From TrEMBL:
SUPFAM superfamilies: CheY-like (SSF52172)
UniProt xrefs under InterPro entries: CheY-like_superfamily, Sig_transdc_resp-reg_receiver, WalR-like
Domain Response regulatory: 5-120
Protein name: Response regulatory domain-containing protein
Annotated signal peptide: none
One term of GO molecular function: phosphorelay response regulator activity
Keyword DNA-binding: yes
An example Gene Ontology CC term for this record: protein-DNA complex
């Protein structure tokens, strides 16, 4: 994962434009929504790694609404709330509903990029862990099949050895005939 797909949601066109330009300059894939309703529609059509959303927006769907919808659609989408009215209560409510973080306006871009890097690194770790788990499952399945094949082969060889031993113990034939029969039995598939 080299780049995050980010949805920027803010009713302020200056903030949207600034976020869009700065994120694109840092090689993020960016989509924008001017309010919560547009964001919800975009979330229903496409997966985003991160949603950066203003907390307070007109139009009936605020940042908490966008957060809830993003998490309902895909729990893997990380949401960072942006607010000019930061309070401990807002932060606690957002975190309880699944927000990964929140930022205060005016946005400190160094802080934003640091948080996005942490999100990207965490997503890469989760993906690598998932890939490793999948590889381990394949290895375990292959090992189980190999062990089963070996157990069948050992059982067959054991049967051949038992039959050869019984032939060698059979005193009704001469020694040379017993050896020849036993060898023939061992060589047969």
């Amino acid at each position: 994962m080299t780049s995050l797909k980010i949805l920027v949601v803010d009713d302020d066109p200056v903030t949207r434009t600034l976020l869009n330009k700065r994120l694109i300059n840092e090689d993020y894939a960016v989509d924008i929504a001017e309010d919560g309703l547009v964001a919800m529609e975009k979330l229903s059509r496409q997966y985003y790694d991160v949603v950066l959303t203003d907390l307070m927006m007109p139009g009936g769907v605020d940042g908490i609404g966008v957060l809830e919808e993003a998490k309902r659609i895909n729990i893997k989408t990380e949401v960072v709330l942006i607010t000019a009215h930061a309070s401990v209560d807002n932060a606690i409510e957002a975190m309880k509903k699944g927000a990964v973080d929140y930022l205060q306006k005016p946005i400190n871009f160094d802080e934003l990029f640091l948080r996005l890097d942490k999100i990207r690194n965490l997503k890469m770790i989760i993906k690598n862990a998932s890939d490793l788990r999948e590889a381990m499952d394949v290895t375990e399945k292959t090992s189980a099949e190999t062990i089963q094949d070996l157990e069948i082969m050992v059982a067959e060889l054991n049967g051949q050895l038992t039959a050869a031993r019984d032939i060698l113990r059979d005193q009704s034939r001469d020694a040379e005939a017993r050896i020849r029969l036993a060898l023939d039995h061992l060589v047969e598939p």
